[in-house]
Design brief:
The strands form 2 sheets. A 5-stranded mixed sheet has the order 4-7-5-6-8, with helices on both faces. A 3-stranded antiparallel sheet has the order 2-1-3. By secondary structure, the chain is α/β, with parallel strands linked by helices. Helices cover 42% and strands 16% of the residues.
């Protein structure tokens, strides 16, 4: 870890040495080998490579990819989107503002955990989804193309997460991605009308 702080595992990313002695991000924390933990911020991962922290921890000659910070961000993003796709298959995602509006304002509304708005979606839609969210987190980390691909639809700009294990896992990974990209650590589960972007 670059800072030397002691942090919870959720605030860290594990890296391991590949058989070719290349440092790789272990987003799931399951790859074999001794783990090297770095604060889950892009700048900290860059610093760890530049300051040769990985080499000191590995106590061996290693290769640190020049784009390690970008690789890590891409893997975090892929993990979150994979979970979103699984949540959809499990029936825990509703797509489209009209359907979301109907579900939220139904006489027996479903228990929602969070909402999504495409990062390249319009301002009117963002305001409307913010009103429908009613204090739940709104994740705006992904483009409409990324949401469409993950959710198996066309031109997906808005989605709602119904309570369930996969929805919860997606929100945790979205929070980790947000912390990695922004360098801040918001609690997306409690703060009213929290926008994760």
């Amino acid at each position: 870890m670059v800072s030397g702080e002691i942090l919870e595992k959720d605030g860290l990313i594990r890296f391991v040495l590949s058989p070719e002695s290349v440092i790789v991000p272990d987003i799931l924390g399951k790859l074999p080998g001794r783990g090297m933990w770095v604060t889950a911020h892009r700048d900290q991962v860059k610093r760890a490579g530049l300051q040769k922290v990985f080499a000191r921890k590995a106590k061996a000659k290693i290769t640190i990819p020049a784009d390690l910070a970008e690789q890590t961000g891409e893997r975090l993003q892929r993990r979150a989107l994979d979970l979103l796709g699984l949540a959809r298959k499990a029936g825990q995602v509703i797509c489209g503002l009209t359907k979301i509006d109907g579900a939220v304002n139904s006489p027996k509304p479903k228990p929602f955990l969070g909402f999504l708005h495409a990062s390249d979606g319009g301002g009117d839609g963002a305001e409307r989804i913010g009103r429908l969210a009613r204090g739940h987190p709104v994740v705006a980390l992904f483009s409409r193309d990324q949401l469409s691909l993950a959710l198996g639809g066309e031109n997906v700009v808005h989605a709602a997460l119904v309570k369930g294990g996969l929805s919860e896992s997606f929100l945790r990974e979205a929070d980790r991605l947000n912390r990695y990209v922004s360098g801040i650590s918001p609690d997306i589960s409690n703060e009213a009308e929290q926008r994760v972007a």
